[in-house]
Amino acid sequence: MEKPYCACATPPGVSGIAVIRMAGEGSASVADQVFCVKRAANGAKTVSEMAGYTVAYGQLFDPSTKETIDEVMVTRFCAPHSYTGEEAVEISCHGGLTVRQEILRVLLENGARMAGPGEFTRKSFMAGKMDLSQAEAVMDVIAADSELALRAAESQLAGSLKQRVGIISTVLYGVMAVFELWIDELDDEGEQETKIAHAEKLEELLLQIRNLTDTYKQGRILSERMKIVICGIPNSGKSSLLNCLSGYDRAIVTDVPGTTRDTLEVLTSLGGVPVLLIDTAGIRKTEDVVEAIGVDRATAALSEADIVFWLVSTEEKEDTIKDLIDPIMELPEETKIALLISKSDTSDEETVRKQEETVRTLIREKGYTRTPDMYGSLSSKTGEGLSKIE
Questions:
Q1: Considering only 88-92, 184-188, 234-238, which range has the smallest mean pLDDT?
Q2: Which domain, by its residues, includes 244?
C-alpha cells in the first residue's frame, strides 16, 4: 500500500497558525500514532473513530519520547468527498517554523512521506475532481494580487472555462459522427441541405473558439500583470508619472535630462487591474556609453509592452518628437499606444491642443496610417488628467 503523503499547506515564515495536510489511504492511522484526542465530536477517542468533516482538539506528540510538540486541532475528511478524493487529515498548529518541522518529522517517522510538488492538486485531477483548467486556476487563486484577478481565477476554478470547452466539444463530436456516416454515401439534394446546416454550425463553433482564444490575453494580463512602459525623451516627466501612479517616490526626479539610466519597475494596480509599470531612460541619440545602454534597454522594454505611455511635454521640439515616432509606431498592432501631453500645468489648453496636433501631423508625414489608440494630457505635479489613465 502506498504511504499517505503530507506537506505544509501554508506559506513559509512565522505566522499565528499553520496547516499541515496529509492525504492518502492510512492517513487517519498515521495521525493516531502521533495525536492524543482531548475533545472530539460524538466522543471519538481517535482520529480513526472521528466522523468525516469533524474536528478534534488534542496534543500532537513524538511517540519515541512521549513529549508534546504542540496542542493542535485535527480535521478529518473521508473519501471521496475531499480535495484529492482520498482519505485526508489536516492538522492546524501554531505557526512557528520549528513546530511545523517537528510535526512533519514525526509524521514521516510514523508512516507518511513528503508530498511531491503539486501532488495534492495532481491527485485531485487524477481522481476527476477537477480538469486541467481548474487545476491551473488553483495557483491563480493563490497568486491573485487584485480583486479582478481573484474573480477571474475563482470563475475558472468553479468550472466556467470547463463548461464552455465542454459545450464546444459535445457539438463537435456530434457533427463528426454525422460526417462519418456520410463518407461513403452519395450526395443528394436532401443530404446537401443537411450538410450546409452542419457547415453553418461549424462556422458558429469556430467563432466561439476564436472568442475563447481572444480571452487568453485578458486572462494573462490578470494573472501575469499588464506591462505598461512609460517612454519619452529625457526630462519629459516619465519618472514623475511613475512616482505618481505608484503612490511613492520610486524614481529620482530632477530637472537634469538623463537622470534615469536604467529601467525601473513598480508593481501596482490601476483600475483594479494588476500592472507592472516600467520607467525607461529617455530615448535620444547620445555619446554617453552608460546612457546609450539605458536607451537600448528602453527600446527592448517597448517591444515587450502591452501598453505604451508616450510622454511628449508641452515644450518638446519637433526634431525630438520625430526621433521617437519610428520605434513607437512600428510596435505590434496589439500593443496599445497612449499619447500623453505631459506638464500640462505649465501651459494653457491651446498649447496642449497644438502640441497634440503637431504629433499627429508628424506621424502622418512619416507615412504611418496607424495612430495612437488614446490621446490625453496630464500633470504629475497637480494630478490633472491622471484619472483618465487610471
A1: 184-188
A2: 225-389
